[in-house]
Structures are given as C-alpha cells and as structure tokens.
Amino acid sequence: MARTTHGMHKHPAYKRWIYMKMRCTSDPRYIAKGITVCDRWLHSFENFYADMGDPPPRHTLDRKDGTKGYSPDNCRWGHVQRTEPQPCIQCMDRRRTQGGHSAARWRTPQHCGLPST
Hints:
Layout: H1 12-26, H2 28-33, H3 39-42, H4 45-52, E1 59-63, E2 75-79, H5 89-97
Antiparallel strand pairs: 1-2
C-alpha cells in the first residue's frame, strides 16, 4: 500500500474520500448500480481535494445525480438535512477502532445535533 504523502490523513475531506472509495468497491448496492469513482479521484486524494476543497461543517459528500458516479461534475458538499441517511463518519471510526463489533449508526439531522425538518 502506498504511503500517504500529503499529510492530511486526519483531515475531514480525506475521510470522506476514503469512505467514498470504500462504498464504490465494497458496498453491494453501489456495485450493483454501477456507481464508481472517476479516474481522476480514484487514486489521488490530492485531485479530489483540489476539486472539492474543505467540507463545510455538517456537510457530506453528495452526488447531484444519484444514478451517476463520483466525479467533479456530479459531486458537491451537501448539508446533512438534504442528503439521504448515510453511516456517520464518527460512528464508523469508532467501530473500526473497537474491532468492528458495534454497528454504525445512520446519520440523521438529529444524530448530528440538527433539528428535524
């Protein structure tokens, strides 16, 4: 496995990039629908970060068209209230650090401290 050279392995954008790639290579729902990561982003966090920048607080990576893959022209930082529930990054981190024994909670506006709509 290649070493991280950008020094941003703890940055929120890096975590979102990793989870995006995991979804597209490991989640049967994404694989069955043919949801992929564009070549520009697949092996380069630097390219992903150059295109997307810093995620605003309480925003997640969102595809504008849910039938298309992850690419600069189809992605944006979407507020958690506007996106479908997704596994909470903090819960996924906690699950990984505890040996994978607890299930990740689904992120909802209430889970992240926001009022429901």
